[in-house]
Amino acid sequence: MSVERGEPVLSIEGLTKKFDSVVAVEDVSFELRAGEIHGLIGPNGAGKTTTVNLVTGELEPTSGSVRFKDDDLVGRPPSDIARLGIGRSFQVVQYFPEMTVRKHLHLAIRDPSKTVRSVVDADPEDTARIEEIAERVHLSERLDTVAKNLSHGEKRFLDIGVVLGMDSEVILFDEPAAGLNTSETEELEEIIEDLRGDYTILIIEHDIDLVRRITDRITVLHNGSVLATGTPEEIVSNEDVKEVYLGE
Ligand SMILES: Nc1ncnc2c1ncn2[C@@H]1O[C@H](COP(=O)(O)OP(=O)(O)OP(=O)(O)O)[C@@H](O)[C@H]1O
């Protein structure tokens, strides 16, 4: 089922997650609209990563629902949720040190019924697709470089390439600019900007200037609850947000 641009594609409603006595996420509701870039911000411990883990199935909510188009995601394993079209990048980039960029992308685009081993040993069939993804993540010149020899920024871009290769419709980015220098952050911004409209994107990010520049809407979490959702302009002028987050 395809979704019209601007229509809700992922709807989070009344999501709550308790870890014993700690309420990490409390009655959180917001939606991602098809084609938008949506920021998820808030102080440390506000519940951002927990929210993403509840969407991807790494955690199961105490209550509430997560809907992706017509599908209820709660209770499904992460592999099912990924296969439905929800991809994520992690705070800490995951990669195989001795494997080339080309092989990482080959693995990402493989038919999921094929084992990793059979793909690692085979030559890629769809070289055009691999090259197209490499270009989108600025790694065309690095296709034959093993991952351990990439710069930190390039490893991050490879991680994004792997998510693109998995044919995700929704991409969840957890602090993609963490540890990047200024020029790498600018390059990341170009890469994400180029994805605008082709994917629905949720981005957790502490670099508030980057979030303001790149997002269409922002949700602010505080103590596990939604403080506000709105356009970047609405969020930066919101009195509650200024008080708890922007430090004004
Ligand atoms: N597995 C867990 N067990 C117990 N408490 C947890 C667990 N995971 C998260 N928490 C708590 O839930 C709250 C929200 O954590 P979470 O990591 O989602 O916040 P965050 O907004 O992503 O923070 P940061 O910006 O530091 O990454 C915190 O108080 C955290 O200590």
TrEMBL record:
Keywords: ATP-binding, Nucleotide-binding, Transport. InterPro entries: AAA+_ATPase, ABC_AA/LPS_Transport, ABC_transporter-like_ATP-bd, BCA_ABC_TP_C, P-loop_NTPase. GO terms for molecular function: ATP binding. Pfam families: ABC_tran, BCA_ABC_TP_C. The keyword Transport applies. The keyword Transport applies. It comes from the Archaea. Residues 10-248 form the ABC transporter domain. This is ABC transporter ATP-binding protein. It comes from Halobellus rubicundus.
